[in-house]
């Protein structure tokens, strides 16, 4: 296998020299490098497609990049986030097309559809996908170091044999052995692809979470607007009752003034809730690229079922995956820094053709064919400093992994406690609301029939009912928010909502 790539490289070098030797014109015809085997196309769905059936050749003479292992205690294990194991982005994963200006509005009437619409519309996801494709091209750039390098040029000036003129030159160089320089560059480029893949998935999770939170907030303020409207109507009825009793001489003017004050306060509360509702609908409209429907369902049972299927694993979280990918990049940089401190062996060949007056007895062509060994004898200690710096970056990335794992676990525990507390609170608030409704009915009877209750008691009862209703709605929507955040914190956002980039 080694002989095969040596032979291929030598044939390329010799062929390049022969090209100039048989012609007075320099023909620089370099075949284009094969494109990345897979790349991302969003037209309109983001999908990974094949661009070339031929893999890029890699000579065996260069030391290949070693697999990256992460040490955990005394046991080394393979980093699970490798370039060869990137999740595929196929049409099944990309459920919804990217919205365009001329596209008809999509009828998204529940939480799942709105989240999918936001992910398919928001441009930051396509931005991250394009950066990912850029990183994939960087792998091809690094792999080009395995192949021969051919240069062509022209020079003008005084030649070695004493005459003035121009010279065409063609040089070719094939790396024979580099102690892993090219392999390290390829490994770093592949690690950067993995890192950007994780960032792309994190961007999907972030937009999905923002859309889900916006839907829940819209539902929250719709409920609060309804509660405030109901309170205003009930207080207006009491105001009319007070006005009638004042006209009949059964009550004082103070009752009417108190009722009027409560109605004005209810109107202020209603306006505040309507303003918040408009703001949340505007945020949701920005995320999905169209006017949201007036009633978007939040399937509570589906959320609960999704939570039941989640088995928390720190390796699934985006934060830990990104830290793992950053560690892989740092390890590749360590390997490359060490390789750069060693020499490089290459086969170099060249031919010059003189275009001016060539003295008698001089050949118009000059050929060279050498095996070169290049190494920096002194660089001010920079190579050693680079190795030490790369090692520190790897150690920092290792500690970052531990930090992200602790943060993920803390987030899980906090959200689990919050969900448990809110579930219990919702039950208590439901009982309180029923009690206050019964209390209001009793107060009305005592006020109208027995005269043992004042109008202020009825006004206070309405205030208590409104407070119990708003507390209940806020707790219910806080529970939905906690459930969605728990799905995101455990790294299951794409799987639960069936989004592009979901793991298989």
From TrEMBL:
Alphabetical list of InterPro entries matching this protein: OMP_efflux (IPR003423), T1SS_OMP_TolC (IPR010130), TolC-like (IPR051906)
Which Gene3D superfamilies does the record match to this protein?
Outer membrane efflux proteins (OEP)
**Region annotated Disordered, chain positions:** 49-80
Q: Which residues form a coiled coil?
A: 211-241
Query: What's one Pfam family the UniProt record gives for this protein?
Result: OEP
Q: Where in the cell is it found?
A: Cell outer membrane
Could you say which residues form the signal peptide?
1-28
Tree of life domain? Bacteria
What UniProt keywords apply to this chain's record, in alphabetical order?
Cell outer membrane, Coiled coil, Membrane, Signal, Transmembrane, Transmembrane beta strand, Transport
Please note every region of biased composition (Low complexity): 49-68
Q: Which GO terms describe its molecular function?
A: efflux transmembrane transporter activity; porin activity
Gene Ontology cellular-component terms for this entry are: cell outer membrane; efflux pump complex
Main localization of the protein described in the UniProt heading:
membrane
Q: Which family does it belong to?
A: Belongs to the outer membrane factor (OMF) (TC 1.B.17) family.
Q: What is this protein called?
A: TolC family outer membrane protein
């Amino acid at each position: 296998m080694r002989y095969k790539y040596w032979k291929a490289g030598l044939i390329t070098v010799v062929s390049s020299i022969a090209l100039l030797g048989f012609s007075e014109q320099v023909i620089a015809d370099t075949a284009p490098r094969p494109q990345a085997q897979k790349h991302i196309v969003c037209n309109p769905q983001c999908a990974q497609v094949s661009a070339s059936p031929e893999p890029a050749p890699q000579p065996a003479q260069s030391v290949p990049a070693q697999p990256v292992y992460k040490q955990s205690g005394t046991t080394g294990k393979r980093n699970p986030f490798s370039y060869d194991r990137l999740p595929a982005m196929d049409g099944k994963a990309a459920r919804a097309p990217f919205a365009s200006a001329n596209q008809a509005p999509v009828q998204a009437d529940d939480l799942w559809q709105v989240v999918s619409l936001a992910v398919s519309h928001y441009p930051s996801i396509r931005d991250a996908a394009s950066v990912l494709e850029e990183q994939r091209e960087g792998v091809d750039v690094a792999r080009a170091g395995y192949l021969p390098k051919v240069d062509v040029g022209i020079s003008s000036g005084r030649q070695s044999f004493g005459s003035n003129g121009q010279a065409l030159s063609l040089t070719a160089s094939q790396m024979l052995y580099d102690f892993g320089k090219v392999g390290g560059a390829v490994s770093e480029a592949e690690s950067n692809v993995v890192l950007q893949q994780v960032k792309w998935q994190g961007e999907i999770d972030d937009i999905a979470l923002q859309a889900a939170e916006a839907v829940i907030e819209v539902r929250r303020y719709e409920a609060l607007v309804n509660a405030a409207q109901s309170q205003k109507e009930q207080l207006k009825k009491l105001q009319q009752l007070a006005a009638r009793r004042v006209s009949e001489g059964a009550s004082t003017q103070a009752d009417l003034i108190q009722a009027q004050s409560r109605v004005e306060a209810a109107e202020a509360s209603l306006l505040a809730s309507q303003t918040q509702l408009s703001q949340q609908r505007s945020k949701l409209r920005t995320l999905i690229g169209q006017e949201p429907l007036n009633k978007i369902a939040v399937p509570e049972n589906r959320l609960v079922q999704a939570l039941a299927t989640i088995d928390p694993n720190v390796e699934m979280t985006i934060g830990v995956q990104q830290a793992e990918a950053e560690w892989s990049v740092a390890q590749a940089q360590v390997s490359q820094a060490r390789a750069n401190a060693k020499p490089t062996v290459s086969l170099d060949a060249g031919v010059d053709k003189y275009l001016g007056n060539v003295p008698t007895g001089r050949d118009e062509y000059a050929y060279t064919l050498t095996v070169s060994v290049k190494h920096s004898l002194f660089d001010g200690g920079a190579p050693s400093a680079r190795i030490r710096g790369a090692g520190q970056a790897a150690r920092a990335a290792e500690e970052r992994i531990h930090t992200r794992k602790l943060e993920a676990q803390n987030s899980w525990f906090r959200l689990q406690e919050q969900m448990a507390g809110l579930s219990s609170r919702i039950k208590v608030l439901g009982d309180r609301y029923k009690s206050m409704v019964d209390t209001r009915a009793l107060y009305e009877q005592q006020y109208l029939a027995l005269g043992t209750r004042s109008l202020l008691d009825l006004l206070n009862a309405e205030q208590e009912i409104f407070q119990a209703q708003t507390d209940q709605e806020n707790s219910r929507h806080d529970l939905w928010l906690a459930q969605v955040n728990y799905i995101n914190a455990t790294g299951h956002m794409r799987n639960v909502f069936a989004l592009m980039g979901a793991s298989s």
